[in-house]
Structure formats: C-alpha cells, structure tokens
Amino acid sequence: MVKLNFIMLSFVVLVVAITCVPSLAVEENKPKKLWDQCVVKISPNCALKIISQVFGDGVVSIPCCKELVQEGKECHDTLVKYIADRPSLIGNKSKYLTKRDEVWAYCVSVSKAVSPA
Which keywords belong to this entry (predicted)? Predict the structure, then answer.
C-alpha cells in the first residue's frame, strides 16, 4: 500500500510539474505534442484509478474505462510507459506494461458492453 501511495503521489506531482513546467513534460525522444494532448484527455480521478490498477491493486470503474477508451490507446500506452520508465519502477516495467494492456482490453470490453447500440 505504501508503494501504491508513493506511485499515486508521484503521478500527481508529475502531472502538476508538467502543467507548470512544460520542459519537464517529456524526455527529448518523446513527442511532446502527443504527451500534452494526452494529459488533458482524462480526469485526474480516473487517471489515478487507472494508475492504481496498472501499478498496484486498484480497480478501474466503468465510467473511467469509458474515459480511457475515449483518450485512446496511443495516449494510454504513452502515459503508462512514461511512468514505468521512472528509475524506481523500471525493474518491473514488463509487468506494468502487461497490466497496462490488460487494463486497456478490459476497458474496451466493458465500454462496448455498456454503449448504446
């Protein structure tokens, strides 16, 4: 639980830093435009729920799944990979990327199931 709280706090600090200091938004080799577009596509509450499921044992709600699917896979992949590349997390990067893909698949399936025909 302590590690999950640290990850969630790190994510919030990262988002605040990105908002306040654009030069911290991405590493040189990441497309800054994509990062900037992705960060604003999802509510902070849902972002934290998604991060807690990918990096911990949280559960993403159906409304947050809908937001995630609207955000798009490329954004989801980019944001999770960026966080997973942090030095404190990189040792488990493959695990996090697998969970990222599982969260995406789950959210797509529940979003389709509850969408009006």
Answer: Signal
